[in-house]
Every structure is written in structure tokens, then in C-alpha cells.
Write a structure and sequence with these properties.
Elements lengths: L1 H7 L2 E7 L8 H11 L5 E6 L2 E4 L3 H5 L8 E7 L3 H18 L17 E3 L1 E4 L2 E4 L1 E3 L3 E4 L6 H18 L4 H14 L6 H13 L4 H4 L2 H15 L1 E4 L7 E5 L4 H7 L4 E6 L7 H9 L3 E3 L11 E4 L4 E3 L4 H23 L5 E2 L5 E8 L2 H9 L5 E5 L11 H12 L5 E4 L29 H4 L1 H15 L5 E4 L5 H17 L8 E6 L8 H5 L4 E4 L1 H8 L16 H13 L4 E3 L10 H4 L6 E5 L3 H8 L3
Parallel strand pairs: 8-11, 11-12, 12-13, 17-18, 17-24, 18-19, 19-20, 20-21, 21-22, 22-23
Antiparallel strand pairs: 1-4, 2-3, 2-4, 5-15, 6-13, 7-14, 9-10, 14-15, 16-17
The structure holds phosphoenolpyruvate (PEP) and magnesium ion.
The site of magnesium ion has 5 residues, from helix 19.
Protein name: PTS fructose transporter subunit IIBC
Keywords: Kinase, Magnesium, Metal-binding, Transferase
Cofactor: Mg(2+)
Amino acid sequence: MQFLKTLFSKPYSAKLSITSSNGFHLRPAAKFVTEAKKFRSHIKAKKGLEEVDAKSVNTLLSLNLEKGDAFTLIAQGKDAQVAIQTLATYFKTLMHEDKAIEPVTTQVHTYQGKTVEVQSISLGVAIAPVYTYRKKEIYTATNITLQKATTLAQEELLALSKKESNNEGIYLAQKELLTSLTSNFDTLEMFEKRIEEQSHALIGGKHESKRADYQDILQRVKQQLGYTYVFDFPTEPFILIADDLLPSTISQLKQTAIEGVILRETSSTSHTAILLKAEGITSVICSTHFELHKRPIILDASCGVIVLQPSKDDVSQAALSQKKHEEEEERAYLKRFEPARTRKGKEVIVLANVSSIESAKEAKNEGAQGIGLLRTEFLFTKTQPSLEEQTQAYTDIFALFETITVRTLDVGGDKNLPYIDLKHEANPFLGIRGVRLFKSHSNIMDEQLHAIFKAANNKSIKVMFPMVSTVEEFNHAKSFAQEVAKKYHIDISNIDFGIMIEVPSVLFLLKEFNTVVDFYSIGTNDLTQYLFATERTHPTLEVNPLSPLIFNVIQSIIKNATKPVSLCGELASNISAIPQLLPLKVHTLSVSSKHIGKVKEEIRKY
Ligand code: PEP
Ligand code: MG
């Protein structure tokens, strides 16, 4: 009966586009499925003629959705309408949060021996013989059933996600994938066959690289059934070569004499690559086949090459760069809490871009001198937070640092939040977003400012408005904030008000802004998008992040601004941009936590 009711109920649908350059891959798909399962309706995803269950990670992945693709989400059942609304917005949030893997910048090499070009995953230099990866499978019979083994493997993945919180998403995604691939009636053979078939249905480099996750969950289940895997790695230093490695193998590599890793068939977005980078193991992707000898080779990921028959000079040169690289990494890490002074003695303040309580704690640990951009959208991703929840979160974050810049809610364009009802617009990037919410959603802004002011509790902090394009917008937002303070009897004399410079009109209004704002922060992400009329999430268009025009614009801002200026767009985290930013007198940078040590060390070179 229930089934018939569902069958004849009105379907609701939404067309969703893949905006992340990583495609709709395992981690966001797993999060999406977890959310979809909360609804009772039947939920399907349709691409062309293919229609699959949207509550199963495996079937969702089988659509091979790449950047630029679109699919229709269809829900049928009692809660179908809410399901579509919630999931459509959640999907957009997932796409926004799924940042592209930053390309690794390599240097030019001067080796004499025969070289093969490679794609670097994790920088560093290794000199050692190559060892071809092999593993032995040994089976000791147990009376554990496949169902029990699956449950144990799921529990293991859950425990790992808690233990290794930096890679939590990978383990939770594998757990969800495992759930979607097992059924109560399986034998191990059936399960293995399904893994084989389903993983080979993944098409396209980035999707195919997730095949290792399918093999990884199979291995975990088999381990519970009594299978063990022996690797037999050499005891002398070695460079490991393999088609691909399972993500779970990476943590074991650190305990061996490994110097580097060459993978033939993975992509820089695979979980194996992400974990290699996280472990700091020099590693590259090399699809060119070459003959293996017992002699040492040079794997120079910093220059993006393998030197097959290195000359004596090549080896000395590589040994020198290896030493330099290791010393630099070590120095950057050890000196992460020290100020960054240029050779001429000018201090550049390095703050952090933060978007949650955890990331604020990480920033502290990585040597941030404060928070240069607190993105507050994280509080609004699922439901509207209460005043108390917001106040608590801001209080916890403000307590960590003396220097804090908190940005008011920046919704719209690429930042969609599920329950904030932004009317559909033909050009959302040019519509209601950022500071414009002060007029369209004044209750939300009132509550947010109330929470920020309560949490500040007389501490001197900076409040920054996003997407400001006119002086009137700033004045309105500031008066609004003052009214909020007055209404709740909070003294805000310690609070400075400023703007993000991310809309080009501001470049021509600096003289006027100088008379009203307390500070500026340049947001190169949006500023670049609007300067070049190129949407930051566009599937095919890209702007050179190091375009001379961007540096000219920054120079002109610094020249014309009479209030303090910082830089918080991604450009500030780009090591290659530092030598060009310093002569422009950019003296405050706000960067993502993992770049703090290296950015500081780079500054010290000039
Ligand atoms: C920017 O636009 O450069 C910026 C820092 O803000 P966001 O990336 O959050 O839009
Ligand atoms: Mg922005």
C-alpha cells in the first residue's frame, strides 16, 4: 500500500550541475547519500537515459559525473518536496566546499642523464634503487561470516575517521561505499566480483583513480575474514614503483626505509595521492614505462623528473637539493611560531583563513599570528544556528587569538546555504549576495551581529563586510551593526569595521572609502572573477592566478588606501606570488593553515 502511495505521489525534481573541478567523486557523494538517506522518499539521480538510486554511493558514482555535467535529482514520496529542496542546496554546498587540489609548482632541472617527465604529487628528492611493489596474500581460516566481516570493517573505518581527523572524509566515504556494495546474501566471491565490475564502471581519470578505494574496502573485509598481506619491503632505502597503491597501505610505508613513490596509474586527486601528500612522502605520477635496473635513480619531485641513469654530478646535485629541501621543510616547521621578517628586517604578519572551530585550532598549531578571515558560513550549512550556538562558536574561536577579523555571512553566488531562501536569479553572482543580505535578510544579520558582539565581550576585533560595491552599502551595514549593538546594550567601541576588496568598483572609490572604513582586506578570489568576468567555479574557463594585472591592481590599492590593507585571497598562500607581493608592500597576509610555515619561510628569503 505504502509502495503504491509512493508510486502515485507527485514527483519533485531539481537539475544539479557539477561545478567542482574534481567532479562528483567519492567523498562528496558519500556525504550526499548520508543526507539523502534521512528522507523516506525514493530518490533517484538521472543523467541522460541512466537513472540510479541516489541513496547509494556506488550507483551515484556509476554516473561518472564530471565538472560541467548535470543530472536531475528526482524524489517521490511523502517528504519529496523537502527532500529535493534540502538536497539541492546541500549539493551546491558540497560542490563549493570541494576545493580543487592545488597544482604542485616545480622548478627547472639541469640534470645530464636521461630524464622522464613526471607529475609531482608531493615535493622532495629521492636517490635510491627502484623496488617493484608486490604483496603476498596469506589465508588462515576463521569462522567469521562475510556479514560480520563487513560490519567489523565498517567499524574499523569509523574508528579511523575519528583517529585521523585530517583524513576523516576519506574513511567515512569508504565506509559508505562499503555499505552500498554489500548485501546480506553475498558470498565473498560475489562481493569480489561486484567490486571488480563496479570499480571498472568508473570512467575518466579522476573517477578511475577511486578504483583503489574499492580494492581497499575489499582488502579490509578480507582481513576480517582471516587474510593477511605481507609486503616484504627492502631494508635498505628504496623508491617504490606501483601501478597504484591502496590508501590503507600509505600509513604503513612511513615505517619502512622508503625514499619515494612512483605511481603509474593514479591521479593527483586520488585518496592515495592525498594521503601520500599528507604523509610528506616524495611521490610522483609517471605513465611512461621505463626499464628498471638495480642502480639508484633520482626521483626529483621538486623538478618533476626521474633521472634514469644519473651521472656523478647529477647524484651530487640531487643530494644537495634533497638536503636543501629537507632543511627547508624542517626549518619552516620549526620556525612556524616565529615572526616572518624579510632580509631587510621588515615583518610580514601571517594570519590564517579559518572556517570552523577545528580549523581555528589547527591555525594556532601551525603558527598563525591571528585570524585574518573568519568565514562564518560554516555555522549555517545545515540549519539556522541559534543565537547561543553562534555565540558559543565565536567565543571559542575568539579565545584562541588576539588578532581576529570576522566576516559577516557571505551567502550567494558560489556559496549557497540550504535554508537561507535566496530567490532564483538569472545571474546569482551579480545578485543578492554578501553585504546585500543586510537588506534582504535583516533578521539573520541582526542575530549574527548580536552573537559576534556578545562573543567579542569588549575584546578589540575587526568585523568585515563581504562583497561591498558602494560606500552606501558599507555605511548601511555599519549603521545596521551600530543599531544592533544599541538594541542589545553592547558596547562596540572596541570593534573596527572594514570591507573585503573583491568587487572592482571599490578600486575606483578608495578615496571615499578611506573616509569611512577602518581597514581593507583584498579578496583575490572574487576580485579576479569579477575583473576577468570569469566565474570562479566555471567548468572550463580559468584565469592565470599570477596574471600581472592582479599585481598591478594590488599595487594600486596599496598606493591609494590610507587604512591598513591585508590580503586574504588564495594568492596569499601561493609561494610563487610571495616575491612579487613583498615589493608591493603587502605586509599582512591571511593564508590557509597548512601554508603558514612555508609562507613565513618564503618571506624570510627576500
Ligand atoms: C575572496 O573572495 O578572495 C575571499 C577570500 O573570500 P571567499 O573565497 O570566501 O569568497
Ligand atoms: Mg569572496
